[in-house]
Design brief:
By secondary structure, the protein is α+β, with helices and mostly antiparallel strands. It has a single domain, classed as Trna Endonuclease, Chain: A, domain 1. 33% of the residues lie in helices and 37% in strands. It contains 2 helices and 5 strands; from the N terminus they run H-E-E-E-H-E-E. A 5-stranded mixed sheet has the order 1-2-3-4-5. The protein is globular. 22% of the residues are buried.
Length: 132
């Protein structure tokens, strides 16, 4: 694949990712969640969506893949989870009250016109530092 082809593919993938984030936001609004933030950043850390429901803050990672292969949730690896947890910690420390929190993953597989959607509520927990 040539350099121009890769650039075009990257642009299409980014567009599909942005569309997936918008679709996820629509889904959560219909389900009664409040959107607190979209693409919230702190330094080099980012969370796709930060929501609230019943005094719980939900940090959401959205993954979209055009292929029908593996579940896109598998791409939220240990390193990505760690970055989301660090961002969540930074966000929660800025709040004036204490909140319950959780980490969700939303996936889209297929194309913008024909996709499968999945919502993994409480998809992972922060790792505990065992001191080892």
């Amino acid at each position: 694949m040539g350099r121009i082809d890769r650039k075009e593919l990257g642009h299409k993938n980014r567009a599909w990712g942005l569309k997936a984030e918008a679709l996820a936001a629509e889904y959560f609004l219909k389900e009664g969640y409040t959107i607190r933030e979209r693409n919230w950043r702190h330094g080099h850390l980012e969370v796709d969506l930060i929501l609230e429901l019943d005094r719980t803050i939900i940090f959401v990672e959205v993954k979209a893949r055009s292929g029908e292969g593996e579940d896109p949730a598998l791409y939220v690896d240990r390193r990505k989870r760690h970055r989301i947890v660090c961002a969540a910690d930074s966000y929660l420390r800025r709040q004036k009250v204490l909140y319950q929190y959780r980490f969700d993953i939303v996936t889209f597989t297929g194309s913008e016109e024909n996709y499968k959607f999945a919502h993994y509520a409480d998809a992972f927990l922060p790792e505990v530092n065992s001191g080892r």
